[in-house]
Write a sequence for this structure.
């Protein structure tokens, strides 16, 4: 009998100490930031003198970037079918290596602008790290990795998200990357605004002053061991129903 009771107590203890479900936490964060509105609206914004557009309906997406280069009007379009570039209104052939580079650039800007939308894509893997505190607020710390298949050119990148336990909002994020020599970045959200039901934020972008492990970067932030690099700011945001 004592052995049975011990077993029952052990099962209860494990159940009570099980980590929260990372998928459920991310789902709540997506809902808090706009939810299904991401797939029933067309989103436009400007970032560093370039115009971007996002539209996704029933799994079919279209990402657009428009800018001028040497007095030429350039329009990059990334869809499920691939990448195309128009110069002064005419489709122009682009080498595969450059098409991959341009696609990654367009996708990256839109990915960060619409976070946490996208964290439920099929190639995304989420795991719970810990419950922690930043700037006197409590956060779920979530780690995100990507499968090679469907994870894009930068599938080796690793992300960490800090999601507010009360409001379910992503207020901080960090990531490690391998392109251009690699590195680690930490971003702190500011200037929150809601545009037709969708949450947008800007970020202060930091890098560590010395080598560290990605999962320890919030500790470095608390200790003042990060260096500000830039600000990531979106302008002229428009959200229109499809």
């Amino acid at each position: 009998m004592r052995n049975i009771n011990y077993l029952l107590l052990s099962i209860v203890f494990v159940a009570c100490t099980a980590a929260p479900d990372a998928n459920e936490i991310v789902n709540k964060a997506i809902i808090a930031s706009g939810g299904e509105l991401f797939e029933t609206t067309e989103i436009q914004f400007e970032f560093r003198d370039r115009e971007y557009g996002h539209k996704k309906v029933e799994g079919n997406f279209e990402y657009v970037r428009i800018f001028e280069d040497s007095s030429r009007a350039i329009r990059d379009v990334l869809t499920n079918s691939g990448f195309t570039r128009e110069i002064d209104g005419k489709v122009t052939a682009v080498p595969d290596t450059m098409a991959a580079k341009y696609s990654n650039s367009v996708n990256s800007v839109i990915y960060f602008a619409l976070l946490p939308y996208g964290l439920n894509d099929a190639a995304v893997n989420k795991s719970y790290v810990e419950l922690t505190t930043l700037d006197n607020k409590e956060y779920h710390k979530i780690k995100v990795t990507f499968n090679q298949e469907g994870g894009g050119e930068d599938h080796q990148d690793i992300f960490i998200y800090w999601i507010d336990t009360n409001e379910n909002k992503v207020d901080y994020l960090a990531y490690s990357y391998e392109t251009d020599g690699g590195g680690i970045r930490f971003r702190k959200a500011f200037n929150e605004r809601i545009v037709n039901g969708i949450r947008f934020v800007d970020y202060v972008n930091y890098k560590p002053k010395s080598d560290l492990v990605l999962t320890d970067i919030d500790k470095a932030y608390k200790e003042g061991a990060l260096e500000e690099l830039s600000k990531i700011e979106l302008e002229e945001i428009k959200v229109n129903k499809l």
The helical segments are 2-17, 22-32, 96-113, 217-222.
